Amino acid sequence: MKAVVRTEYCAPEALRVHEVERPEPGPGDVLVRVHAAGVDQGVWHTITGLPYLVRLVGFGVRRPKNPLVGMDVAGTVAAVGRDVSRFKPGDAVFGACDGSYAEYALARQDTLVPLPAGTTFERAAAVPVSGLAALQGLRDRGELREGEEVLIFGAGGGVGTFAVQIAKALGARVTGVCSGAKTELVRSIGADHVIDRTKEEPTTGSRRYDLILDTGGQRSLASLRRILRPGGRLVLVGSEVGGRWTGGAGRQIRAMLLSPFVGAKLRGLLSTTREADLRHLAELIETGALTPVVERSYPLDEVPAAIAHLRAGRAAGKLVISVA
């Protein structure tokens, strides 16, 4: 099968498509014929091995444990292991796996759910990593309640476009912060108020929020705390700033250490793949409360270009790799 492979940590532009042996499912595995795969910042981290903390948490210290790339997947079941009872060949599924930038990928059955009725493989592939981060950041770490005011930084990006819609589904009033080129998009997916960050700095105004979801990592913790209401919550969802050792995780650690002393709840987020949450996202899609925003799809041999576009910060919503 064709797959994007790297045997050493490298820059994304060094990635190439190779012919490799098709994997065989173990007892609890599902072999997915990949139709589409999502692109997110986490993929860049696993390709480059940066920050170094990525290597220490299980991806391989000197070189990648898994030479294949990609986490989000949508496709059809090609084969199942003997202990798999939830799926059969031919089922349309989406979820998370290791190595989705390939014609076939292995996944555990508890990281896949049926494809939402009426959606496409490309849209479904955009959901798992970013959708789970938005849902768990708002509902679990952010404790968002109906009627509250939430401010979302990076509202026009991959996590942000999910967060705006999920916050609305939870009954919140949403203010989205994004670049001028994305304001109409953010408004169209349900934001009650949109701030063009190139024209207005939201941390210097008089408005206060019950919850801030920061997907950008560009502003100081002090400036974000200033616009929280008493007892408010700040949730940091990743960050692409920071040193080579801890990257954005260093900022999350500082926030959690500071939290007991400032009269607000400052929290980081490490989202996880939960079957129940994937099913919940699928239900939101089926009811029309959530529509994955896909700016563009790339063929398998243009994965480096897709990652470069993502890293430049220009993507409106999600980017997807179209495999078959």
Under CATH at level 1, the class of the largest domain stands as: Alpha Beta
Oligomer: single chain
**SSE string, helices as H and strands as E:** EEEHHEEEEHHEHEHEEHEHEHEHE
- Domain count: 2
Subunit structure: Homotetramer.
InterPro entries: ADH-like_N, ER, GroES-like_sf, NAD(P)-bd_dom_sf, Quin_OxRdtase/zeta-crystal_CS, Zinc-ADH_QOR/CCCR
Keywords: Cytoplasm, NADP, RNA-binding
Protein name: NAD(P)-dependent alcohol dehydrogenase
Question: Mind explaining what this structure looks like?
Answer:
The structure is a single chain. With 324 residues, the chain is an alpha/beta fold. Helices cover 28% and strands 27% of the residues. The chain has helices at 41-48, 53-59, 121-125, 128-141, 158-169, 183-188, 221-226, 249-258, 275-287, 303-311, and strands spanning 2-5, 16-19, 29-39, 72-80, 92-96, 104-108, 112-114, 149-153, 173-178, 193-196, 209-214, 228-236, 265-268, 294-299, 318-322. The strands form 3 sheets. Strands 3, 4, 5, 6, 7, 14 and 15 form a 7-stranded mixed beta sheet that branches. It has a 6-stranded parallel beta sheet with strand order 10-9-8-11-12-13, with helices on both faces. Strands 1-2 form a two-stranded antiparallel ribbon. Helix 7 links the parallel strand 11 (209-214) and strand 12 (228-236). Helix 4 (128-141) packs across helix 5. The longest helix has 14 residues, at 128-141. The N and C termini lie close together (12 Å). The mean pLDDT is 93. Residues 10-321 form the Enoyl reductase (ER) domain. Pfam families: ADH_N, ADH_zinc_N_2. Homotetramer. It is found in: Cytoplasm.
